[in-house]
Amino acid sequence: MGTWLSGSCTKKNIEKHSSPPKVMSVLPRSVTDDVNFDGESFHNFSECWMVEQNKYLDELVAANSAQPQLTDDTMHTLIDKVVEHHEYFYREKARWAKEDVLSMFSPSWLSSLERAFLWIGGWRPSMAFHLLYSKCSMQFQARLNDLIQGQKTCDLGDLSASQLVKFDDLQRRTIREEREITDMMAEHQETIADASMVELSHVVSEMIGSGENEKEELEERIESVLEAKLEGLEKILHRADDLRLRALQGIVNILTPKQAIYFLIAAAELHLRLHEWGKKKDDAKKSKQGIKEGESHNS
Q: What is the CA radius of gyration of the chain?
């Protein structure tokens, strides 16, 4: 395992192995030789990444408090850093998925609560728009009197007509592609019962019934069939992650710098708090089960 995973979760340790692109239209598939790919390693990476996300949240909140003193260029620099942090996550996720795609569909680094709301190994892209409109509604209600008096609030409650049109178009395109990927996943899941799988399961069952051991050529055939299923999952996951990232980038690009900071704060808060709440529920469940097992053992 590289030292950047086993060491502390500092910004320097994470970013020294990263040079994320400004735009990611196709998720990369290259793999370096100095990283061991396994679910536990990505678990460590994910935890470090969230530590950094929390630091960026602090920076976003501080920048928001410092307005209007901050220039647009300063805000753009911070926004670019936060978006690049997300790009980096998906770039590393793609590298691990190439070696262990199954762990990406049953991520141990997420709580049971988070896993219950997963869509193809991550958050549903259309959720970003629900987050945007929820925050927009909250800020609109909070500054309603100012808006009635014609004052510009410059926050998410003050979206322009042209911005709303762009968001509507982006949301429609995102939902359309989301449905396409959902259909792809459904079709691929059905292949688990295709002719090749049914035939192999029957042949192996007959061999077990007759007391025979699986022949090497049959094991190779099984591995080949399963490998095709995993490659299909990897391609679908890459497309889903690419859409997640493009939805985030698209929303940020439509917003003004000040509005983008509000949105990124809301996104980070929701992600981090949901993770914390889920972990607390899991820990409480484990503690409760431990007490019951102890009582059963003592009795």
A: 23
Tell me the pLDDT tens digit for each residue of 66-84: 877 889 999 999 999 999 9
List b or e across 253-274, with b for residues whose CB sees 16 or more CB atoms inside 10 angstroms: ebbbbbbbbbbbbbbbbebeeb
Q: Left (φ > 0), alpha (ψ -120 to 50) or beta: where does 261 sit? A: alpha
Rounded CA-CA distance 268/21 in Å is: 21
Contact 278, 112 (CB under 8 A): yes
pTM beyond 0.85: the answer is: no
Per residue in 3-26, pLDDT tens? 333 344 544 444 443 433 333 443
**CA 176, 84, 58, 60 torsion-angle sign:** negative
Query: If DSSP codes are grouped into helix, strand and coil, which group holds residue 191?
Result: helix
Q: For 150, left (φ over 0), alpha (ψ -120 to 50), or beta?
A: left
Nearest to 266 by CA among 142, 164, 138, 166: 138
DSSP label at 29?
-
Written as six digits, the tokens of 39 are 């679910």
CA distance 235 to 24: 15
Structure tokens at 30: 């290259």
* Count of alpha carbons within 13 angstroms of residue 282, beta-carbon side: 15
Closest CA to 48 of 92, 114, 78: 92
Residues contacting residue 14 through CB under 8 Å, at least 6 positions apart: 4, 48, 49, 52, 88
Q: Give residue-wise pLDDT tens across range 191-213.
A: 999 999 999 999 888 888 887 76
| CA–CA gap between residue 93 and residue 20 (Å, rounded) | 13
The continuous run of DSSP H or E covering 244 comes out as helix 216-254
The whole-angstrom separation of Cα 82 and Cα 69 is 20
